[in-house]
Design goal:
mainly alpha, about 0% strand, globular
Length: about 300
């Protein structure tokens, strides 16, 4: 297993959180329909990934055949999430969204027969509790069973994407995988917009608004998906899922710095719990790796001289 997986996952979680915060800013500033914002974001993301593939010479090859997994996320998952947010509170959606890291090892166990280690289960449970505490710090209310159900469906689709995508990283390089997946998702999103809103996308958009939404799309789609798929080539999917619990923590930090929201004591406790669980897990893995490696062999130059 190559190194760097945890660092890539932390960067991916940070990019996802930054993208969510910037998307919130874009929605507030532009007052555009969420479906219109989603289409523009995905167009910007697909364009950036296509340029990156061309610049690096990454061949698409059989990536198109595997790209259907993008229908799960960001396709179906983000469609359900937007629909759910229209019916329930943001606090409820955040709490339910934090269930994804717990769903991933269970789905991987059922589909891939990857039975999680007991320590990993404890780490996921602790980190999930921490992310729930962060989410509960917000002022919740106005939830609904229908909205909550759509958010849970969104989380399930995202968790299924995580598991399926983990099996494809061996066959497709991360950059072409991210591009083809999002092209499939863009097709689904455009089809949904045509059915629900008609052929008009965003008639009142200004260049500045389009630039803001496009920037949010790069942070919310292109960068985090690329980092995430690269991380999956360096670590097991169940362990990668633990780092997804950092998204609410980074999200709260971004909300404080960008949106001027206040931090409560639950934010602090939850953030410490999430980071603490990840540090414990990383330390335990380092110790286990050192034990498997065994003692360092000695040589005539580093042996102690006899007394």
């Amino acid at each position: 297993m190559r190194s760097g997986g945890p660092l890539l996952m932390v960067a991916s979680a940070g990019a996802w959180a930054a993208g969510l915060v910037l998307t919130k800013v874009a929605l507030d500033v532009t007052a555009a329909a969420p479906s219109s914002v989603l289409v523009v974001q995905l167009i910007a993301s697909v364009g950036a990934l296509a340029v990156a593939c061309a610049a690096t010479g990454a061949g698409l090859g059989g990536a198109w055949r595997h790209g259907w997994v993008g229908l799960l996320e960001p396709g179906i998952s983000y469609q359900f999430a937007l629909a759910g947010l229209a019916l329930t509170s943001a606090a409820n959606a955040s709490v339910l969204g934090s269930l994804e890291p717990a769903m991933v090892p269970l789905i991987a166990w059922v589909l891939l027969r990857e039975r999680p280690h007991l320590r990993l289960v404890v780490v996921i449970a602790g980190a999930t509790v921490g992310s729930v505490l962060v989410s509960f710090s917000a002022d919740g209310g106005g939830g609904s069973w229908a909205g909550d159900g759509l958010v849970v469906a969104s989380v399930a689709a995202a968790a299924l994407y995580v598991v399926v995508a983990s099996r494809q990283v061996a066959a497709v390089a991360p950059l072409p995988a991210a591009l083809t997946q999002q092209v499939w998702a863009l097709g689904l999103v455009i089809a949904g917009h045509l059915v629900l809103a008609g052929p008009v996308l965003w008639p009142s958009a200004t260049p500045g608004q389009l630039l803001l939404v496009a920037a949010a799309g790069l942070l919310n789609y292109a960068l985090p998906f690329w980092l995430y798929l690269t991380a999956l080539t360096r670590m097991p999917v169940a362990r990668a899922a633990t780092y997804l619990t950092l998204i609410p923590v980074f999200g709260v930090l971004g909300a404080v710095l960008v949106l001027g929201e206040r931090v409560g004591w639950l934010d602090l406790v939850g953030g410490v719990l999430v980071v603490g669980c990840l540090l414990v897990d990383a330390t335990a893995r380092d110790v286990r790796r050192a034990e498997k490696a065994g003692p360092r062999p000695t040589s005539p130059t580093n042996r102690s001289a006899p007394v």
